[in-house]
Amino acid sequence: MFITPAFAAGTAPGGFDLMGFLPMVVIFALFWFLLVRPQQKRAKEQQRMLSEIAKGDEVVTQGGIVGRVTKAGEQYLSVEIANGVEVQIQRGAVSAKLEKGTIKSL
Q: Where would you find the membrane-spanning parts of this chain (predicted)?
């Protein structure tokens, strides 16, 4: 008279169902290729750009200040933002490296 419990089709109690796990794997793969991987690539390019900054390069800071690098240290840069006006900034504060001659065209 007792009714036996109904189990999902094809799975034994306590078994592993690959088809139930597959959507999670697909979502993780999409997440990886659409979000994580491009962000890692961008971070690597930014790190390479920061390590290649040298004296004479024209840069833009995160605050939007445009200037020419006069001294390049390991952690800090000295940037000339106007004739005779130099500021000290951290390398990480540089958001972009400009092509030579960009400052003159501004």
A: 18-36
pTM metric for this prediction = 0.69
Total residues found in the chain within this entry: 106
Average confidence score pLDDT of the chain: 88
The reply to whether 99 and 70 lie within a common domain is yes
What does the angle CA 62 – CA 66 – CA 71 come to, to the nearest 5 degrees? 95
Give every CB contact of residue 39 below 8 A, 6+ residues apart in sequence: none
At 81, the pLDDT band (50, 70, 90 cuts) reads: very high
Beta bridge partners of 82: 85
Domain range for residue 98? 54-105
Per the DSSP assignment, residues forming a β-bridge with 96 are 60
- Both 61 and 41 in one domain: the answer is no
Nearest to 50 by CA among 62, 65, 38, 37: 62
